[in-house]
Amino acid sequence: MKMVRIIASMSYTALLSVLCVSNAEAESAKTTPLNYNAILRQDTIPGVKKKAVDTASWVNNVARTRGGGDSLNVRLSSLSPNLSLQQMLKGNVAGLYVKEITAEPGTEQSMLVRGLSAPIFRNKDVNNLQPIVYLNGIPLIQNNNYIYDIQKYDFNPIGPATNLLAGIDINTIQSVEVIKDPVELAKLGPLAANGAIWVTTKQAKSGVRQISVNSYFGMVKSDNASPVNAEYENRFRKPFYQKYATPADVLNYAGYLRDSTNLDYYGPAKWGDLYYKTAPIHSVDLSISGGSERANFRFFAGNTKSAGGADGTKLDRYATSFQINMSPFEWVTVSSMVNATRMDRDRNRSIRDRFAETRYIPDLSNPLPPSKQIYQWFLDEYDKVIDDNRNTAVQGYFSLNFKVSKFSLLTKLNFDYNEGIRDVFYPTTLMENNNYVSNYFGYNQRFGVTNALTFSEELGSNHKFDFELGQSFQSDLNRYNYANAYNGPNDFIKINVVEGSSAEANYLKPVDFLVYRYTDREQRRLFSVYGSVKYKYKDLLTITGLIRDDGSSTAQPGSRWLVTPATSAQWNLKNQFLKGNNAIDELTAEVSWSRIGKLFSDDRFGSGPQYRVENGWVAEPTIPGYNGLATITRPYSSGWVGYDIRWPYTDQLNVGMSIGLLQNRLNASLTFYQKDDKRMVVNTPVPTETGYASIFSSGLGVRNTGVDFGLKAAILRRPDGINWESGLNLNVNRNKLTELPGGLQELTIGNRKLTIGQAVDKFWVYENQGIYNSDAEVPVNPANQEKLNFEGTTLHAGDPIWKDQNGDFIINDEDKVLKGNTMPKLSGGWSNEFKYGNFSLSFNVIFALGQKGLNEQAANHFDFINKESGNDIGSIKEINSWQASGDLSKYPIYNPWSSVVAYRLDQDLFLENASYLKLRSLSLGYDLSKLPWLSNSKAGIKRAFLYVTANNLFTITSFSGSDPELIDYTGLYSGYGMVIPKTFTLGVKFDL
């Protein structure tokens, strides 16, 4: 019992320390153990003299030497209801390009730092190009690429498909820095080969207790749609039938368009009242921080409810975090943090996504009509659907920092774990008398240990050296279990039932359902050591050198380790030549270079040649054939992995200059960069005679060159008047292919063609030059008197005029040209803030110029004959396709029955300018805390800020689609992405 009392006393004393009381207060609290008021009333006591220790400043600076990137204005960004980190950064940092291809809340979004470092063939390729995100020094783990591998259609991955970076609440963020400096990236190691984003949360602070409350309420405005009925589609098709249709074509007219008395199709098109709806959004969070001289804490909790403007989409997020910092001695500091997040997402109800999940295509000859009554029936049936999507994540660290004399040792353990769950059930009424159920559970976990020893030494007053030795170990594990099932007994049993009796022969085997199971597991380890030295001569010159050695379990045994160097030099021109010049406050030149290894995204490369289990066929690689027998085979369809696949790496060079003028009221920076990604792996096709579809080969090289420009100006500074601050960021980027495996000069993969010296994001299309109005206009080959043909099919009147590039009178792939780019040539943003008295006004404009997009939606609309006869995933007609599209008169009236497929997508007829400029946010605020009646009150209100914000007010573009931002990663505009809506919010921020 005595031991129990001792443990209880120690625990209670520790609890008092956690609650950050001083010793004097802790003593008094022992007589009133339940007096929480007394404990939290005061954090410091005058007269108690101890050396205050900053327990938070070093926590987030591990592996950092100095700022190597651009920062986000978190204060202004927090006025907008940004749900994800990508949305916070969009258009706000030079060199960072954000893609948001749908406004459905919580969906995946992408970020690219300084261009496209590899070609994109599929959605999974985008994952390999993402920068690493650090949260208080914790490298956050993301979903593994294998969630795309078993999908038949490249639309969505299996599982909840939620953006994991939507779990970071902006009101808990202190700063966000996009790191682009080569040496800073080299110090972070291979994880940062694609760039790094360093997120620092608000830290625990010593001093008087602080309470902050942030909240907003608003509305997401529904889209301004133009619903149409079958009469609109009839008028659209009439010119084609009048000009080209045969009697047989007329007899085969689409059944749902034949009867003009059918009010389901020809009646009022009011489906938009049910599909597009203005939705409420809100957010509220609370944080408490405080502490004594030797210990402090911070607690945060918040809830955000976001919504889309269509199809009932929404996301609910619950977030909490807790930090404790303690310094029991002046030479040691202990710190820990735990974050937890949960996100529940309501997905869209699109037919395409549902059938892509089920891999089952029913009869599509009669699409969902534009009738409000029929669509309401559809929604009523959809209420029987189960589609639960949930993500849970937790991150944390425990750190010890020892400082003795000129030495400092930091030891840190960190972890990141997230899991996703998706449970699906579709009833027979939505699946042509066949029901469907699927269950997914997957998790990603990362554990890391880092140690860094630093030593500083000054030689006289002019020379200073900073030495650092570091080591890190990281272990990643990704795993999922996924099962789907068809043809259950009825719609009341919505789970996969198995035999529960161990006495039965089919124990734990499915009952009634036809079940298919999938599982995958990947584990990766990374061990690294590095050393760096920084030399500083007076306040004029700083030189840094670094070398590191990284070993990865995903690399092949012959090249498991990679040694890479980095170096930089910074010259203070102001102090060197212009020390007496009062107009120039800062003038610095810098050059920086590094080589950084790039990690393999797949563990298959670490083992060389391998076997796989395959029991499918070409159309369904994941579903076995009837009475099939799974066997171990070579990877004939997925790609052969050979030897001699070495570490890929990136060489990065920065040459920059920054200047500050007029007492730093005007600051500008200009950085030229060159980024060479080399020895990358690409899955290249091989001759059929080999028995393999492709082989993974090393040797792909891509170079990005460009300029980052930043400008910040305090244009007006008047204590009693208007204050105006403005910021501009610009990025100009070009990429080109520098190398292909095996010395190839060009490589064709699917609908992409890679050519040495050309950009990797170019479209490969036919040049359209008009229409043949008669057969006589079709050119004739004088050598054999044969007319121009398309891959062996003679062209006729009504066919497109595609340019015969090589003059062989045959239109084929040899006549395609590389044209346009999916990535912008110039991108950036312009922000402004005005203040007058207690009022503030800010707005933010973003832009992307020079990119193109292939309008797949228009191509599919004109190619109605082939699309409707195909009855495949491309034949689906959604409810939102019953609306007027862009200007259709600009397209020629080709023969849609032609066997050359006149409205094929791979031609520049559908290639459009996708440049845009968007007013992304407009905010008006009022500082209530400056009002006398509030500032003099006894409530202890330190800050009270009231604001209103409008987002996405207008877009200037010549693109004919709904929004050029919705063009996907490969440059296609499908029309499926939800339009980014206008939002209006009213918010308040309190500090107590």
Description:
This protein has 18 helices and 44 strands. It is mostly beta strands and 992 residues long. The chain has a 22-stranded antiparallel β-barrel. Strands 1-6-7-4-5 form a five-stranded mixed β-sheet. A hairpin with a 2-residue loop joins strand 11 and strand 12 (332-346). It starts with a helix and ends with a strand.
Q: How would you summarize this macromolecular structure in one to three sentences?
A:
The chain has 992 residues and is mainly beta. It contains 18 helices and 44 strands.
Q: How are the SSEs ordered, and which strands pair?
A:
Elements: H1 2-18, H2 23-29, H3 36-41, E1 69-71, H4 74-77, H5 85-89, E2 96-99, E3 110-113, H6 123-127, E4 132-135, E5 138-139, E6 173-179, H7 182-188, E7 196-201, E8 207-220, H8 230-244, H9 247-251, H10 255-258, H11 263-266, H12 272-275, E9 279-291, E10 295-307, E11 314-329, E12 332-346, H13 351-358, H14 372-382, E13 386-404, E14 407-426, E15 436-459, E16 463-486, E17 514-537, E18 541-552, E19 561-572, H15 573-577, E20 584-597, E21 612-614, E22 631-633, E23 640-641, E24 649-661, E25 666-685, E26 694-716, E27 722-739, E28 746-749, E29 752-755, E30 762-765, E31 768-771, E32 789-790, E33 793-794, E34 800-802, E35 810-811, E36 817-821, E37 826-836, E38 839-849, E39 852-855, H16 856-862, H17 864-870, E40 911-913, E41 916-927, H18 932-935, E42 943-957, E43 972-973, E44 983-991
Parallel strand pairs: 4-7, 23-26, 32-35, 39-43
Antiparallel strand pairs: 1-6, 2-3, 4-5, 6-7, 8-9, 8-44, 9-10, 10-11, 11-12, 12-13, 13-14, 14-15, 15-16, 16-17, 17-18, 18-19, 19-20, 20-24, 21-22, 24-25, 25-26, 26-27, 27-37, 28-29, 30-36, 31-34, 32-33, 37-38, 38-41, 39-40, 41-42, 42-44
